[in-house]
TrEMBL record:
Top-level taxonomy: Eukaryota, Metazoa, Chordata, Craniata, Vertebrata
Keywords of the record: Cytoplasm, Hydrolase, Metal-binding, Nucleus, Zinc
Protein name: Aspartoacylase
Localisation: Cytoplasm; Nucleus
Primary localization class, coarse: cytoplasm
Chain positions recorded as N-acetyl-L-aspartate binding sites: 62, 177, 287
Record: residues binding substrate: 69-70, 163-167
Chain ranges of the Succinylglutamate desuccinylase/Aspartoacylase catalytic domain: 10-205
Organism: Oncorhynchus mykiss (Rainbow trout)
Leader sequence segment: none
């Protein structure tokens, strides 16, 4: 069948935890698996659990000098190495050396990057390319496996927003974003849902490597549209909060005229965009410094072609 995309076996897989040092599910799972990797072992797959930002993990802070998950730019990765560079840039270079180089045939096949959010996003998979049929098939497999529990897919492909993530050094990068969970806290339900998604993901890779062909399928995704900032005064200070009607309503429709922010004197500010959007990362703690109250997304259905191993 000419319509079947062939991919090489996914032999080398990494699981990143601690890209942000205060997102505890990934930190804890990866440390657990470094001690005993039996749970993540699959036939014919070398799965490497790895703490990406050990200094931030040690301090239980998001990062030390700069956000590691935005540090994997061509500029940073090609900069002359040295101790004068920000810690996370040095770290990005080392990670690129071990798991990359980014964009090369030597790069790891798959990297799972484990994150937590303070937003009510549930168990979200993050996809960087709508054309990655391998990842689309994997996400379809995971969604089916955990049904009736939901597993939204956030597509971060955008002409203007470039994230330069840690996982982007792999051929097939997958982000896992599970919440709500406060920074520096472990919640058992969040921990377990991250663990189970990873189990199904590794099962998929094992099945693929064994030669199972996956037929064409479709995957519903939420494509990132725009970043929405809090209302601010002329000094840049926040003058309103996420409206109670919007708080914790990640992935639910936001229509023109719906309450969006509430000022400190109780005034409601309404959404004035064109058409319905689906907000996510609502009131994420880590995004206050990025001037971001939430992200709007639009729903799309992507088609994935059949895949099998070469």
């Amino acid at each position: 069948n000419t319509n079947v995309s062939c991919f090489h076996e996914a032999r080398r897989v990494a699981i990143f935890g601690g890209t942000h040092g205060n997102e505890m599910s990934g930190v804890t799972l990866v440390n657990l698996w470094i001690q005993n990797g039996k749970e993540i072992h699959r036939k014919g797959v070398e799965t490497k659990p790895f703490i990406t930002n050990p200094r931030a993990v040690e301090k239980c802070t998001r990062y030390v000098d700069t956000d590691l998950n935005r540090a994997f730019t061509t500029e940073n990765l090609s900069a002359p190495s040295g101790d004068d560079l920000p810690y996370e840039v040095q770290r990005a270079q080392q990670i690129n050396e071990i798991f990359g180089p980014k964009g090369s045939p030597e790069a790891y096949d798959v990297i799972f990057d484990l994150h937590n959010t303070t937003s009510n996003m549930g168990c979200t998979l993050i996809l960087e390319s709508s054309k990655d049929h391998f990842n689309l098939q994997m996400m379809h497999y995971i969604k089916k496996a955990i049904a009736p529990d939901s597993c939204p897919v956030l597509l971060t492909e955008h002409p203007l927003l470039k994230y330069s993530t840690s996982r982007s050094v792999a051929k097939h990068p997958i982000g896992l974003e599970v919440g709500p969970q406060p920074q520096g806290v472990l919640r058992s339900n969040i921990f377990e849902s991250m663990r189970v998604v990873l189990k199904h993901a590794l099962d998929f890779i094992e099945l693929f490597n064994e030669g199972l062909e996956f037929p064409p399928c479709t995957v519903d995704v939420f494509r990132v549209s725009e970043k929405m900032d809090y209302p601010r005064d002329t000094n840049g200070n926040i003058i309103a909060m996420v409206h109670p009607n919007l708080q914790d309503c990640d992935w639910e429709p936001l229509n023109p005229g719906d309450p969006m922010f509430q000022t400190f004197d109780g005034t409601t500010l309404r959404y004035e965009g064109a058409g319905t959007v689906y907000p996510t990362f609502i009131n994420e703690a880590a995004y206050y410094e990025k001037q971001q109250a939430f992200v709007t997304t639009r729903r799309e259905t992507l088609a994935a072609g059949a895949i099998k191993k070469t």
